[in-house]
Automatic annotation (TrEMBL):
Residues 24-134 form the SHSP domain. Keywords: Stress response. The lineage of its organism: Bacteria, Pseudomonadati, Verrucomicrobiota, Opitutia, Opitutales. PANTHER family: 26.5 KDA HEAT SHOCK PROTEIN, MITOCHONDRIAL, HEAT SHOCK PROTEIN 21, CHLOROPLASTIC. CDD domains: ACD_sHsps-like. This is Heat shock protein Hsp20. The keyword DNA repair does not apply. It holds the Pfam family HSP20. It comes from Opitutus terrae (strain DSM 11246 / JCM 15787 / PB90-1).
Length: 134
């Protein structure tokens, strides 16, 4: 088992330090798959969170990071024994750092069928501008 752990240490799980007491019960987390796309006006983040409902989703934007936590709502039926599972019951956690180039007041998010789409509008100071030459 030590050889497997040295080759693939945590299978994408993160044991990040927790600052708040609300996160103490989060336990081990799994980093979800995500994509980031950039346009002239905004960044678009697509995060895949299978099994997460809107009430189990928490998105926070601080000065330098965007943090997404998704808790799955599936409960194992009584008397049910899994022989094999592709995924664990661990919560999802994704922390993306940025350089204050986004307008936190205009962030929008939509969760549909386990796919979260977050729009992070760029701050006016970092948007490209045309400069008129006289």
């Amino acid at each position: 088992m030590a050889l497997i752990n040295s080759l693939i240490p945590t299978f994408g799980r993160t044991l990040a330090r927790r600052e708040s007491t609300a996160d103490q019960n989060l336990g081990p987390t799994v980093k979800p798959l995500y994509e980031i796309k950039e346009t002239d006006d905004a960044f678009g983040v697509t995060v895949y969170l299978p099994g997460v409902a809107k009430d189990g989703l928490e998105i926070t934007a601080d000065a330098a990071e965007l943090r997404i936590v998704g808790r799955r709502t599936w409960q194992q039926p009584e008397g049910w024994t899994a022989l094999y599972r592709e995924s664990s019951n661990a919560a999802y956690e994704l922390v993306l750092t940025h350089d204050n180039a986004i307008d936190a007041d205009r962030i929008a998010a939509e969760l549909r069928d386990g796919v979260l789409r977050v729009s992070l509008p760029k701050a006016e100071a970092v948007k490209p501008r045309k400069i008129a030459v006289t």
